UniProtKB/TrEMBL annotation:
Enzyme class: isomerase
Annotated keywords: Isomerase
Organism: Pelotomaculum schinkii
Gene: wbpI_1
Name by which UniProt lists this protein: UDP-2,3-diacetamido-2,3-dideoxy-D-glucuronate 2-epimerase
GO MF annotation, one: isomerase activity
Bilayer-spanning residue ranges: none
InterPro entries: UDP_GlcNAc_Epimerase_2_dom, WecB-like
Family: Belongs to the UDP-N-acetylglucosamine 2-epimerase family.
Ranges where the UDP-N-acetylglucosamine 2-epimerase domain occurs: 27-360
Enzyme Commission number: 5.1.3.23
Amino acid sequence: MKLLTIIGARPQFIKAAPFSTVFRQQHKEILVHTGQHYDTNMSDIFFAELGIPKPDYNLGVGSGMHGAQTGRMLEKIEELLLKENPDGVLVYGDTNSTLAGALAASKIHIPVFHVEAGLRSYNMRMPEEQNRVLTDHISTLLLCPTKTAVENLRKEGITKGVYNTGDIMYDAVLQNITISKQRYASGAWLAELRNENPYISSLKDKNFYLATIHRAENTDNPNKLREIFNAFEKLDKPVLLPLHPRTRKLLDELDILISNIIIIQPVGYLLMLYLTANAYMVLTDSGGLQKEAYFLKTPCTTLRDQTEWVETLENGWNVLTPIYADSIIKCANRPLDCQKYPQPSLFGDGHAAKYIYQAIVNGGKF
Ligand code: UD1
Ligand code: UDP
């Protein structure tokens, strides 16, 4: 079988790694990087760390407004599909790269296989919600990470080609956490980051918040961004913030205090896993990081009104907060009762890559 896989943004590199390894043992995968993310520490670092094969094509679309960026991808992906004529196109998640890949393939009647199908925030103002709803409705195989996702699709009348494979990000965590701990334990994480920010030395195991902020709904509203940073500034422990380039570009305009916030460049996946496991709590608006915090048993506060990953809210492992400094601080200071509760396995058994493979290659014979 010849499969063409479209990736383009940081979380998609991480999700692609476990499946590529399984699929390439017996079949041909053509890997296409749209170029949506391009900084070394938003792209190349993941290929190097996770042993992802070099993309066969990099479309180099770069940044831009949604229409322009997605349009550039569409045109280039269509050309490639006509040239390569694959048996199917695999897309991950909910970015503009996902939608462009799915739409280009669907228009010329190539089957679309969507990993992370069925997630919903029910907030159609989010670009990600638009991308995932549209992608699901033109997909041939809908590879869902959870039962909730299967049920969400059923409510929209989609039942054919739907499989609950478990979450591919859980595979990635299980495959990499031991390597991460071996590399970064015993203070090696501090040594790695010290050159970037001297205040790193003040951090102690389990005594810092790990934060990431990049969602358009937070970054594109200066008032919200100010509330977030005001909250971080007042927390009782330092906040380590590997900063997404989108947010970095907006931060200078804010004129805010950052004496409790240690800002660093985005880090690689292995270091990120170590930081997540080693933090007191994660504060984030990321989709993937909410789950990684859950898998690694670190409490999380999500700086959003909704989450697609509702399972993480059970027993308070993750809580949602509106974007007001007082509310963020209250959630960050909450008693961590969640740690008393065992976590049910709601994200599969860590072999999602195998089940995705079986759905694609064997028509779902698990
Ligand atoms: C995108 C996805 C989002 C996902 C996130 C993962 C869409 C609509 N959004 O958001 O769902 O959660 O990726 O991180 O697809 N930039 C750089 N260097 C880079 C990449 C981006 O400087 O390597 C800057 C550019 O100024 C760019 C901005 O970040 O305009 C936003 O990048 P973009 O890819 O459009 O969206 P993300 O916010 O990264
Ligand atoms: N991540 C990383 N380095 C960072 C920040 C995040 O490796 O500096 C990883 C994180 O562990 C998770 C993924 O990137 O696996 C999440 O990506 P992001 O938050 O950009 O996107 P989302 O999941 O919200 O779409």
